[in-house]
Amino acid sequence: MDALSARASIANNFRQMDSCGNGYGLLAAFVACIGFGSFGAPLKSEAVNMVNPNPFVLQTYKSAICFITCWIVLLLGAEFEFTTWGIVSGFLWVTGGVGGIYGIRNAGLAISVGTWSSVTVLISFAWGIFFFDEEVQSIAGTSIGVVFLLLGFVGMAYFSSAGEDYRDEEALTEPLLESSDEEACTLRDNEACTSDEGLMNLVQTETNVVKGSLIEFEVEEQQTIIANPKEKVGLEYEKKLLGLLGAVLDGVLGGSNLIPMKLAPTIYQGLDYTISFAIGAAIATLTGWILYFLVSSCKEESFAAGYQALPSLHLRKIWMQGTVSGTLWSIGNVSQILSVTLLGESIGMSIIQSQMIISGLLGIVLFKEIKDMKTIIFWVASAVVTFTGIVFLSHKF
């Protein structure tokens, strides 16, 4: 009975949130900022970098932890209710989440979160104005807020890239591989080898002496080799651009993944929606793996070969990083649902996007994504401008 009474007391406290929604909503938004702003840090760890997992693998960790932890809301007073709108949210989140992880891994933590945060705000406000007919106090004031937001985003993107450019230029002054003209360049086990000839085909001849007999055999290996350091930098830029596009995709879908909750009947909204969301995410992730398997099987012309071609989960090496990342994100997600329920789509989602301050600081302090102090100062100033735009927009509703 004591346990039941305690649960009833907790449930009653959460039901009373509607009477003082602003305070609880702001607290939930702050917790969401912590969770969303820090979940990407474990994905940038050395262990994850060493195995370089497929982005969908990292998304799978997030989805799994999201599903495992969603049931905790039952202890907080939520009822077990399921709506198929949760499946829509799940597909939006999983698809965007893969893009976001790809952005973190390729463009960097600070710039990726800054990108999808800004895009998320714009998308959530577009939904509020054009779909839900939310009224703004001043169109001019709202426009000013959007301008602040975009200026801040452009500033963060530019100065984060400036930090990378500085390091790339330093790399151009040093040879990629020390070698002498007299030494041969050999490829073994897919290790890279640099030559002034640029792109070439290597034919390796090995001579072994076995029991006095001379055995010669040739092993032909063909591999594209990038000899020009500038070409390497060009690939880095392309990689970073694709990472930014992944972050933009995450922003577009992230700004929309709770729209299904607002379309669902009232009984399914709020904390109760957490379980529907998690089930939807699990279904979306499982669907992704099935499609991955089918595509791989078609390419390999065999189900067995298609299964072998699936990306590894690297459970032994990154299970801890995946679990921590998923847990931080799940904390942020529950808090986000509460915040959007209590404050609304426009205000709640906007405040939560200040997560970029936390992720940006982690990217700068822990991962040294930007080293030049002057660049860091300009990045911080841009982040302040972006946050100012978010606050400005929030007050116009």
Summarize the structure.
By secondary structure, the chain is mostly helical. Helix content is 67%, strand content 5%. It has helices at 2-15, 21-38, 46-51, 55-69, 85-106, 109-131, 139-172, 229-254, 259-263, 273-300, 303-308, 315-343, 345-352, 355-365, 373-394, and strands spanning 201-210, 213-222.
Break the fold down into its secondary structure elements and pairings.
Layout: H1 2-15, H2 21-38, H3 46-51, H4 55-69, H5 85-106, H6 109-131, H7 139-172, E1 201-210, E2 213-222, H8 229-254, H9 259-263, H10 273-300, H11 303-308, H12 315-343, H13 345-352, H14 355-365, H15 373-394
Antiparallel strand pairs: 1-2
Helix pairs in contact: 2-12, 2-13, 2-14, 4-5, 4-10, 4-12, 5-6, 5-8, 5-10, 6-7, 6-8, 6-13, 6-14, 7-15, 12-13, 13-15
In round numbers, the mean pLDDT is: 77
Report the structural category: mainly alpha
Give, in order, the helices and strands: HHHHHHHEEHHHHHHHH
Shape: globular
Largest sheet: 2 strands, antiparallel
Strand content: 5-15%
Strand order of the largest sheet: 1-2
Q: Helical element count?
A: 15
N-C termini distance: 45 Å
Helix content: 55-70%
- The number of distinct β-strands equals 2
Which stretches of 5+ consecutive residues score pLDDT under 50? 165-227
As a whole number of angstroms, the C-alpha radius of gyration is 25 Å
